[in-house]
Amino acid sequence: MQSKVSSQTGPALSLKKFEWRNYIVYLAFVGVLIYFSVSLYDQGFLTSGNLLNIVRQTATISLMALAMTFVISTGEIDLSVGSVAALSSLTGALALQAGYGIFGGLVAGVGTGLAVGLINGLLVTKVAIPSFLVTLGTMGAVKGMAMWITDTAPVPIIDANFNFIFGSGDIGPIPVLLIWTLVFTVIAHVLLRKTSFGRQVLATGGNENAARFSGVKVMRIKLLVFVGTGLMAGLAGLLYAGRMNAGRFSFGEGDELSVIAAVILGGTALAGGVGTVIGTLIGSLMIGVINNGLIIMGLDVSQQMIIRGIIIILAVALGRKAIKR
């Protein structure tokens, strides 16, 4: 009788432990928020202006991380998102400068992201080059193109409506960038959790061969997630341009690290098969809170980079533990 109770209690405790581990990112986010709220209270960390500023600063990372959740869930990776955002900010700004209006700027910026995403996807699925190598190459090529087309000069945007819609606007007390983030978070969550596409994404990352035998068109799924990441990186570039009132080749520099860290911190398994959109958003916000707090504390850029690197290492460690479970 004792052994029977023990056998029932063991799995129950194990299940309970497993559930608690799924909430690590949320607990960490609350802990970081409390720490900076207390230690930086006198410096205004908790003011509404500063908290909304964190949302503005993390909006582009959040959008790219939402799309990256799908890519990593299939067992792939995309290192080109930061460079794509930079190039998209420039092509969108150039379209506006040429007189094509807001719609023209939107088409140019998002179209740039879609084109790069399609190239990445085709090289991974049709040529069978590992996504790490493909996107590492396109990261450099796209970055060089962004520097070349304007000779590293910024392209100012004087269209007030564009700047309002894509970055610097507020609707009452709510930043437009927060609205963009919430809308696409809902879309991504529904897509991953409530549609057959989302189930096929997770199945592809969980066991590609099994997914293929069960009727999932694995290569098409991978192509679509890369196209989606390119699209969101293109939109992120427009949000950069709208917030800063210009397109610049330097936008998005290093964002690929923050994006991947946000996704893995949120609970998506680095090897694929497990993905969570809400966790990704919390991971992105946590990185934003940490960066903001470190700046207020007066740490220089090198120190901030060290902390960010530690976060990424911890993110990968958590991802490996998630895979083992």
Textual characterization of the structure:
- GO terms for molecular function: transmembrane transporter activity.
- It comes from Bacillus canaveralius.
- It is found in: Cell membrane.
- With 325 residues, the chain is an all-alpha fold.
- It has one domain (25-324): ABC transporter involved in vitamin B12 uptake, BtuC (Orthogonal Bundle), CATH 1.10.3470.
- It has 14 helices and 4 strands.
- The chain has a two-stranded antiparallel ribbon with strand order 1-4.
- Helix 9 packs across helix 11 and helix 12 (255-265) runs parallel beside helix 14.
- The longest helix has 27 residues, at 218-244.
- The two termini are 29 Å apart.
- 45% of the residues are buried.
- Residues 1-18 have low confidence and may be disordered.
